[in-house]
Design brief:
homodimer; alpha+beta; Arc Repressor Mutant, subunit A; SH3 type barrels; six-stranded antiparallel β-sheet; two-stranded antiparallel sheet; 8 helices; 42% helix; DNA-binding
DNA sequence: AATTTTATTTAGATTTATCTAACTTTATTA
DNA sequence: TAATAAAGTTAGATAAATCTAAATAAAATT
């Protein structure tokens, strides 16, 4: 059994792995978990000891199969509870995250099984994120190029199809980084460039650039 | 805010107060909470510091108004979750206690408000125990222990003062479930066990068991 | 390549909740 | 009432999760 805190670390590592598809850095974890890098290092040693992560000093961590399974199960619980809160208790989709952060740590496989059944074995939560089934399997949401978003559609940047330094530097500059939430305002007919709302700031990006950014719609 | 552990101590003190209607002893708490008396003493100092209990060395503790309000709120959450588990997720009444022990510590007043509304502001849980409303008020029905019924007196099972799975399973087995009508035939002087008429069948039940069954006389 | 900056780790404390062992107080009983 | 038993407390340790400050490693820059 993992503690409440260990579960949170695993969950955060899992989410950060998904964005970078590689190893996760100490500081990135510290940022997400609102703690100090020194505390993260301590916990990394503990999780490595328990065979939940692969940890190499100064190099960052990856989840082991065991760690990944644990993390996916927490994500499953979180998303089932979010859906329950919205569908059954009439919460709005922006009110449920904090509550689900607590509920996800309640440890009763039977409870989750029954909740899943009650909700009709749903495949996605109120934010459009996939809900893993009890074996940890889930549909990975279809990705779409930023250039193909329709006006008013929103999404999260989950990848790029161009890896040149100049391209990535440019993305950093305009704050179009992995995990950023973006809303399409309109496609300019003249040149195919797109007007976007990037974290509440309106920006225009060329078709060339927009076509190399992969989004998951939300 | 109280920690998970502090909440459990308050809840236990509350339940033990109800039974003894007076102060609660260190060892009684240690027994219930499955810890050592020394640990209880440590916690008593802490709760007294926080003005949640009145603590006099060697003399036991009582809840302050603040401590009582906190304890009643935990009981409210516990019982609402138990009812939810039985009514909505189709659990049996003997399966829900352990799960509710965890759910009761989830801290979201809005969640509990919505759950209460969803359940229709119920007044009692699956074991017949009253559910405090959001102000901490609840009906305490005049209850009598089954072991105290007089010969020929009849009553309805409305609650139990012991929630272990083995006890509840036993009650199911002998059909001494909530709502069951029971008539006292006689108390056996030798061992205090009772001869009962349970739904037209004569059965003998130990004093131990009979003392944990709460009745409303009819 | 040397220097500076950033990222990470180590060492040593702190807090919470627990423990054991020894001691003290209160209750019981002979 | 003196001895014994039971109940409760204190002192000192331990484990989990955190922290600050200092040290070290890796990356970036001049």
């Amino acid at each position: 059994m993992e503690s409440y805190t260990e579960e949170n670390y695993l969950k955060v590592i899992y989410h950060l792995s998904n964005l970078t598809t590689g190893t996760v850095q100490t500081n990135a974890i510290a940022d997400k978990i609102q703690t100090r890098p020194a505390s993260v290092t301590d916990m990394m040693k503990k999780l490595a000891e328990k065979q939940l992560i692969n940890y190499v000093k100064y190099q960052g961590v990856t989840l082991t199969e065991k760690g990944k399974a644990t993390a996916v199960n927490i994500v499953r619980k979180h998303r089932l509870w979010e859906l329950f809160l919205v569908n059954t208790l009439n919460f709005k989709w922006d009110e449920v995250h904090e509550i689900a952060e607590e509920l996800e740590h309640v440890n009763s496989p039977l409870l989750i099984e029954r909740l899943d059944e009650y909700l009709g074995y749903p495949k996605s939560d109120p934010h459009g994120d996939p809900i893993p089934d009890k074996n940890g399997n889930f549909d990975s949401p279809a990705l779409i190029k930023l250039s193909k978003l329709k006006p008013a559609e929103k999404g999260i940047v989950v990848g790029v199809s161009e890896h040149s330094s100049s391209f990535l530097k440019y993305l950093d500059k305009i704050k179009l980084t992995l995990g950023t939430s973006v809303e399409m305002i309109e496609v300019i007919e003249f040149d195919g460039s797109v007007d976007l709302l990037i974290e509440d700031t309106r920006k225009n990006v060329s078709r060339e650039v927009a076509s190399h950014i992969l989004m998951r719609t939300t």
